């Protein structure tokens, strides 16, 4: 992991087409602007984690319910 210190209005370049700009720092919160091509998805880490957990939960089968649903009467 690369760790950098930046001040307000300073930037970080990632490759040729992504730029992060520190817009504001208040207390323990930093506002960051991201310029990137529209083809690049930008998601908050906690959103990705939530989606991942939801997908895992959706794939988990309740065997009792499965047995009831597949039981031939």
From TrEMBL:
Which compartments does it reside in? Cytoplasm
- Keyword Repressor on entry: yes
Q: Which domain of life is it from?
A: Bacteria
In terms of Pfam families, this protein maps to:
CsrA (PF02599)
**Keyword field:** Bacterial flagellum biogenesis, Cytoplasm, Repressor, RNA-binding, Translation regulation
The reply to whether Repressor figures as a keyword in the UniProt entry is yes
Its main subcellular localisation, reduced to a broad class, is cytoplasm
UniProt-listed NCBIfam families: csrA, PRK01712.1
Q: What does this protein do?
A: A translational regulator that binds mRNA to regulate translation initiation and/or mRNA stability. Usually binds in the 5'-UTR at or near the Shine-Dalgarno sequence preventing ribosome-binding, thus repressing translation. Its main target seems to be the major flagellin gene, while its function is anatagonized by FliW.
The text of the family note is: Belongs to the CsrA/RsmA family.
Identify the HAMAP family for this entry.
CsrA
Its quaternary structure? Homodimer; the beta-strands of each monomer intercalate to form a hydrophobic core, while the alpha-helices form wings that extend away from the core.
Q: What protein is this chain from?
A: Translational regulator CsrA
* Organism encoding this protein: Sporosarcina quadrami
